[in-house]
C-alpha cells in the first residue's frame, strides 16, 4: 500500500464522519482556524527535512509519488495538513456537543 492510499484510509473516514455529524447538528466548521493548517505544516517542515537529511527518517521510494519538497515527500506534508484539519474539525464538533448552550454541557 502506498502512503497516499494509507492517508486516504486513515483520514477520510473520520473527516467525512465529523463533517456529516457537524452538519446534522448545524455546527459551524472551524473556518477561522483554517490558517493553522498551512502554519503548522510550515512550522514542522524544517525539522522534518533535517531529520531526513541526516538519516533519522527515511521513506521508501516505491511507496511515494516521487514529488519532494526539500527532502520530504509530498505525502508527508499532506499528512500534517490532514492531521491538523482532523483535529480542528474534531475540536469544533466536541465544542459544539458539550458547550452549545453557553458553556454548559448538553
**Uncertain residue ranges:** none
Output the number of helix runs.
3
Kindly estimate the percentage of residues that lie in beta strands according to DSSP.
Answer: under 5%
Distance between the termini: 42 Å
Assembly type of the shown chains? single chain
* Approximate shape: elongated
List the helices and strands and how they pair.
Layout: H1 3-24, H2 36-53, E1 68-69, E2 72-73, H3 74-99
Antiparallel strand pairs: 1-2
What would you note in describing this structure?
With about 110 residues, the protein is mostly helical. It has a domain at about 1-20 and about 55-105. The protein contains three helices and two strands; from the N terminus they run ααββα. It has helices spanning about 5-25, 35-55, 75-100; strands at about 70, 70-75. Strands 1-2 form a two-stranded antiparallel ribbon. β1 (about 70) and β2 (about 70-75) form a beta hairpin. α1 runs parallel beside α3 and α2 (about 35-55) runs antiparallel to α3. The radius of gyration is 17 Å and the shape is elongated. The mean pLDDT is about 85.
Features:
106 residues; mainly alpha; two-stranded antiparallel ribbon; elongated
Amino acid at each position: 500500500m502506498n502512503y497516499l492510499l494509507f492517508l486516504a484510509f486513515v483520514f477520510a473516514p473520520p473527516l467525512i464522519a465529523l463533517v456529516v455529524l457537524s452538519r446534522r447538528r448545524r455546527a459551524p466548521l472551524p473556518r477561522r482556524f483554517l490558517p493553522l493548517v498551512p502554519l503548522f505544516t510550515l512550522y514542522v517542515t524544517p525539522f522534518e527535512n533535517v531529520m531526513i537529511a541526516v538519516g533519522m527518517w527515511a521513506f521508501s521510494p516505491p511507496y511515494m509519488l516521487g514529488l519532494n519538497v526539500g527532502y520530504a515527500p509530498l505525502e508527508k506534508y499532506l499528512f500534517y495538513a490532514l492531521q491538523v484539519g482532523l483535529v480542528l474539525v474534531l475540536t469544533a464538533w466536541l465544542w459544539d456537543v458539550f458547550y452549545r448552550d453557553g458553556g454548559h454541557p448538553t
